Amino acid sequence: MQTVLFHSTIFGPIHSRRLGVSLGINLCPNDGKVCTFDCLYCEAGFNAQGPGTTGFPSREEVARDLEAKLAGMKEAGSPLDVITFSGNGEPTVHPDFPGVIEDTLRIRDKYYPEAKVSVLSNSTRIDRPEIFKALLEVDNNILKLDSAIDSTIKKLDRPTLPHFSAEKIIPELQRFGKKCIIQTMILRGEYDGEHIDNSTPAEIDALIEAYRAISPAEIMIYSIDRQTPARNLVKVPREELEAIAARITAETGVAVQVA
Fold it and tell me: What is d(CA 50, CA 135) in angstroms, rounded to the nearest whole number?
């Protein structure tokens, strides 16, 4: 099973193919995975590896470590485009996620006011008022929608919350409007004897309808870039992604970034 974990709260900076020079913040344990999805393609591996033993870093630890890192980078003259919440699972499950966002914006403004703050979220907790409000505060609120067809989203993302469905999440995403970026992983393959393909015309039709309803600031589509825990998944070629992106833009009027 694929397991690539971030073993610290602050990591990088790294070069993100979507965001530029990115300093990462991992709000999950540094020796395990905590997520409300169990995606077939997750580079951190399946949830079965367990949550580890270290627990969530405290709000105070995150602020202290972030300030120390940014102060050192500033002194060294290092560039920074974005501070990105990502890591070993879903960042919004952190028990003090809104407070961490508040601290991060304050510390960012002190050292790198031109840098953006981005959150990569799987959208499962955006129905909670405190999470919704916190995500409205960040520069890049990047929310996942891998399919607008419920059977596909359940095969591909394997949500751990029994109430989660494509039908329920699309109206929640719609509440953000232009204050969100929608991110969609496009792939095909097989897992546990079942065929999976969210690149079909029917899938793209459904996504376009959802994108129209949500009306985000931007859409990001991408495919597999690293080894996946489910071995029989196939990367969709960039030329095909470009064609899908062109169709999405033509039918929604929303800019699409292909990564």
Answer: 27
Q: Which residues contact 241 (CB under 8 A, 6 or more apart)?
A: 186, 221, 222, 223, 258
pTM of the model: 0.94
* Cis peptide upstream of residue 216 (ω within 30 degrees of 0): no
Alpha-carbon gap, residue 18 to 39, rounded angstroms? 20
Cα–Cα distance for residue pair 57/40, rounded to 1 Å: 26
Distance CA 30, CA 100 (A): 17
Q: Which residues pair with 182 in a beta bridge?
A: 143, 219
**pLDDT tens-place string over residues 201-256:** 999 999 999 999 999 999 999 999 888 999 999 999 999 999 999 999 999 999 99
C-alpha 184, offset from chain centre: 9
Give the confidence band of 17 by pLDDT, cuts at 50, 70, 90: low
DSSP summary character for residue 194? E
Structure tokens that stand for 162 in this block:
């029994």
Q: Report the C-alpha gap between 165 and 43 in whole angstroms.
A: 23
Strand partners, 189: 196, 233
